[in-house]
């Protein structure tokens, strides 16, 4: 092989770089069935290829959080689209999120913006009770505390309390009720409840009549309602602590390998078009941008009594709450 041929071969990788497709790596805790079309629209409109790492239903948000922490010295993730808020706050507390002030977040309420513009909240849903209609209206539980009554033994179902929005709900209840009352709640609930892998499993199990009551999210519950299944959504604790509403959150990881593409993806996810699409799609997620007008088959936080929770304080209790739940639900 002559000298010119050798030089050309060595130059090929460099020459090819200029034509490489721009990419961004997204760690996505949102359900694949709801996120796929949004991601595809971003790729089509920008020409940026999105490499997605997703959660399984059984370890929602927690496994991606752990991956981001583990990879923090050499990040692989550019953008984290989380399906809840507590683990995003935990990442922020560890200094693992990049500050990104963006005009895309300007219409959102102040609470939906992390300190130093490190994360943003959008597209919320509620933690609700899904009740099979064979239970007469006058006998249906109206709050989570009611499910500790022995009459509900074997009739209640929920997802693993160590993961996803079920874990987030636990942390929030510890913050709102206090440690003593929250521990009592989960101890008294334990004999009555069956644990399934995820919230979708919970909604389907109640819809199929295998259980009477399920603790789940509105995005999974509304699908069963719209399928014509014999189920009713109850917004719990309207006379006491209120119903918990949880947003999606999005952030750029500090040291993201593709920071410019990451910024474009964050702006896209915060756009009115995406919130409207998530609201009017099957997941019926609630827009946080007040400028987004959408018809919803579920209640907004302004239409029911919403739980008042300090997510920062709830995040601070995460490790303690999880240690308690692991011990209790491993039995």
What would your notes on this structure say?
With 331 residues, this protein is α/β, with parallel strands linked by helices. It folds into 2 domains: 19-124 and 247-297, Periplasmic binding protein-like II (D-Maltodextrin-Binding Protein, domain 2, 3-Layer(aba) Sandwich), CATH 3.40.190; 125-244 and 315-329, 3-Layer(aba) Sandwich (D-Maltodextrin-Binding Protein, domain 2), CATH 3.40.190. The protein has helices at 3-17, 32-46, 62-70, 86-93, 164-177, 179-189, 199-207, 218-226, 259-269, 272-280, 311-316, 318-329; strands at 23-28, 49-54, 79-82, 97-98, 120-132, 156-159, 193-196, 213-217, 231-234, 245-253. Strands 1, 2, 3, 4, 5, 6, 7, 8, 9 and 10 form a 10-stranded mixed β-sheet that branches. Helix 5 (164-177) crosses helix 6 and helix 7 (199-207) packs parallel to helix 8. The longest helix has 15 residues, at 3-17. Residues 4-17 have low confidence and may be disordered.
How would you sum up this structure in a few lines?
This protein starts with a helix and ends with a helix.
Counting DSSP E segments of at least 2 residues, the number of strands comes to 10
**Which structural class fits the helix and strand makeup?**
alpha/beta
Number of domains: 2
Low-confidence parts: 4-17
Number of contiguous helices: 12
- Bulk shape: globular
Largest sheet: 10 strands, mixed
Q: What is the H level of CATH, i.e. the homologous superfamily of the largest domain?
A: Periplasmic binding protein-like II
């Amino acid at each position: 092989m002559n000298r010119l041929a050798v030089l050309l071969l060595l130059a090929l990788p460099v020459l090819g770089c200029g034509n490489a497709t721009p990419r961004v790596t997204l760690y996505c805790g949102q359900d694949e069935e709801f996120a796929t079309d949004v991601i595809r629209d971003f790729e089509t409109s920008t020409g940026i290829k999105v490499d997605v790492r997703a959660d399984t239903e059984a370890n929602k948000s927690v496994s991606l959080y752990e991956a981001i922490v583990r990879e923090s010295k050499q990040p692989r993730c550019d953008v984290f689209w989380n399906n809840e808020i507590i683990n995003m706050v935990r990442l922020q507390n560890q200094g693992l999120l990049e500050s990104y002030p963006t005009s895309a977040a300007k219409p959102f309420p102040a609470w939906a913006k992390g300190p130093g513009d490190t994360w943003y909240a959008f597209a919320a849903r509620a933690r609700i009770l899904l009740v099979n209609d064979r239970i007469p209206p006058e006998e249906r539980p109206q709050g989570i505390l009611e499910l500790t009554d022995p009459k509900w033994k074997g009739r209640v179902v929920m997802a693993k309390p160590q993961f996803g929005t079920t874990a987030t709900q636990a942390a929030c209840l510890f913050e709102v009720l206090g440690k003593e009352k929250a521990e009592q709640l989960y101890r008294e609930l334990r004999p009555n409840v069956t644990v399934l892998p995820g919230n979708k499993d919970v909604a389907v199990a109640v819809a199929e009549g295998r259980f009477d009551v399920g603790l789940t999210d509105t995005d999974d519950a509304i699908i069963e309602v719209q399928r014509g299944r014999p189920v009713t959504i109850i917004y719990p604790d309207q006379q006491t602590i209120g119903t918990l509403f949880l947003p999606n959150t999005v952030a750029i990881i500090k040291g993201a390998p593709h920071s410019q593409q990451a910024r474009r993806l964050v702006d896209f996810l915060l756009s009115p078009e995406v919130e409207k699409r998530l609201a009017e799609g099957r997941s019926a997620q609630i827009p946080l941008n007040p400028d987004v007008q959408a018809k919803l088959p579920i209640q907004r936080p302004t239409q029911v009594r919403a739980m008042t929770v300090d997510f920062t304080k709830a995040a601070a209790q995460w490790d303690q709450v999880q240690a308690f739940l692991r011990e209790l639900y491993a039995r």
